[in-house]
UniProtKB/TrEMBL annotation:
Biological role stated in the UniProt entry: Part of the ABC transporter complex UgpBAEC involved in sn-glycerol-3-phosphate (G3P) import. Probably responsible for the translocation of the substrate across the membrane.
PROSITE patterns linked to this entry: ABC_TM1
An example Gene Ontology CC term for this record: plasma membrane
Keyword Hydrolase tagged: no
Protein name: sn-glycerol-3-phosphate transport system permease protein UgpE
Organism: Mesorhizobium japonicum (strain LMG 29417 / CECT 9101 / MAFF 303099)
């Protein structure tokens, strides 16, 4: 609420001490200035492409790998799953340089593909899906196999609806995380401003006023940037709450 109200203040009200909560003369000038400093439409589109494709990839790979770990028996399954969990403890900064060199060797640097491709699988997503899919009755899956259903049909027509709250929660987590991602896109894009997501583009607002931060301008940009994740949360809120309740009951 403070962010939205601050975006409607005049520069004088933004700097006033003590702070003014409700602007006396609400103004949309800050939003007009944001459009003049940052290509909001292009940056929002870049962020939407990155977050949407990455989220879709994470959902597919997490469901397939989680299904395999939960319902299949194969050599070294426990070891592989333990190694997968161990990768969750690695700070992103540790893998930044090796991953950047790998992306550079494939020619995907300075492009949106370089941001998206390395993030199409996620250890946390696989872990989450495995935990929920393990709760799906084996009898239900065996009955589908006896009826001649393929494994993909079982996964997407039987298992997926059973763990829909977990899928919605993972979709929300993944979308918000990659929408707000800053360091990895900044590293990969190498100054390619046309491909900047909204989070990087908005950093220009901090230096817009010759070193003096225009609070209203920054808050207006932040308000625009937070709208898509907020809308997604509202749409998935019921599933998100169901996943929390389901995990609590399961625990």
């Amino acid at each position: 609420m403070w962010m939205v109200l601050s975006s409607l203040k005049t520069p004088a009200e933004s700097m006033q001490v003590p702070p003014v909560w409700i602007p006396h003369t609400p103004s949309l000038d800050a939003y007009e200035k944001v459009s003049g400093v940052v290509n909001v439409g292009r940056s929002m589109w870049n962020s939407l492409v990155i977050a949407s494709i990455t989220t879709a990839g994470i959902l597919i790979t997490s469901m397939m790998a989680g299904y395999a770990f939960a319902k299949y028996h194969f050599p070294a399954k426990s070891l592989l799953f333990s190694l997968l969990i161990a990768t969750m403890f690695l700070p992103p900064i540790v893998t930044l340089i090796p991953l950047y060199r790998l992306v550079g060797s494939t020619g995907l640097n300075a492009s949106l593909a370089g941001i998206i491709v390395p993030n199409l699988a996620n250890a946390f997503g696989i872990f989450l899906m495995r935990q929920f899919i393990a709760g799906v009755p084996d009898d239900l899956i065996d009955a589908a196999r006896m009826d001649g259903a393929s494994e993909l049909l079982i996964l997407f027509k039987i298992v997926a609806p059973s763990v829909a709250p977990a899928i919605a929660a993972l979709a929300l987590f993944a979308f918000v995380y990659h929408w707000n991602s800053y360091l990895w896109p900044l590293t990969v894009l190498q100054g390619n401003a046309e491909a900047y997501p909204i989070v990087i583009s908005l950093s220009r607002l901090l230096s817009y006023n010759r070193g003096a931060v225009n609070t209203g301008l920054v808050m207006a940009g932040a308000t625009l940037a937070v709208l898509p994740p907020l809308i997604l949360f509202v749409l998935l809120q019921r599933f998100f709450v169901d996943s929390i309740v389901g995990s609590a009951v399961k625990g």
